[in-house]
Specification:
Elements (H helix, E strand, L loop, with lengths): L2 H7 L13 H11 L11 E6 L2 H10 L2 H6 L5 H4 L2 E7 L2 H6 L18 H19 L3 E5 L5 H10 L6 E9 L7 H11 L3 H4 L6
Antiparallel strand pairs: 1-2, 2-4, 3-4
Length: about 200
């Protein structure tokens, strides 16, 4: 599947068939995600792949799956056979940028933006696109309130110095009761290219 086709097919899939995903496919997705760029090659992203049904059920509870059920969605979070928890370790960036070759006047750079979040987002996007490349569907979800991220870290035995960015559900797409309504809504809301892109100056 070429890149344009992967982009065309990429969407948030919120229902999955009762069909397992081959481990080899997940390994290829994760290998692609590992190739995400990172500032100074700090490589601060960390990912946990979850396939155990009980653990996925608990993650769905932490993600407040009933919220989606009340709005007419299927139990897509718990039904997805694979969850990829995407996290970052900010200290990897500070460690890297306090190495001699990265110091400015003997000090760590003043970060214009928290680049660790940018890099984690890039890795997350590669998980989404990698799933499409494998002929699968995927959707991103996150946990509210923030306390639920701590509970997820504890559930998975993740160190305290990792910040969870989001979770990607992956599986074989199934029909979505809300799909047509969502498509119509997206068509109405998608900004035209000229609203998003300027040339040379604003």
């Amino acid at each position: 599947m070429d890149f344009d086709e992967v982009l065309r097919r990429r969407r948030m899939v919120r229902n999955y068939a009762d069909e397992p995903v081959a481990r080899e496919a997940v390994e290829r997705i994760m290998a692609r995600a590992r190739r995400a760029p990172s500032a100074g090659f700090s490589q601060g992203m960390r990912m946990v792949v979850v396939t155990d049904a009980e653990t996925r059920k608990r993650i769905a509870e932490l993600a407040d799956e009933p919220y989606y059920l009340e709005r007419g969605y299927e139990p897509w979070i718990s039904r997805a056979p694979v969850h990829v928890v995407v996290a970052l370790r900010e200290d990897d960036y500070h460690d890297r940028y306090t190495e001699p070759g990265k110091l400015e006047d003997g000090e760590e750079i003043e970060w214009p933006v928290p680049w660790w979040w940018v890099d984690a987002g890039q890795a997350l996007l590669l998980v989404l696109l990698g799933a499409v490349k494998e002929g699968l569907g995927a959707a991103l979800f996150t946990l509210y309130p923030k306390e639920h991220n701590r509970l997820l870290r504890e559930l998975l035995g993740m160190p305290d110095d990792l910040a969870i960015v989001g979770v990607v559900a992956i599986g074989h797409p199934a029909p979505e009761p809300m799909e047509e309504r969502r498509k119509a809504d997206l068509r109405k809301r998608r900004r035209p290219l000229e609203d998003v892109v300027r040339w040379e100056r604003w």
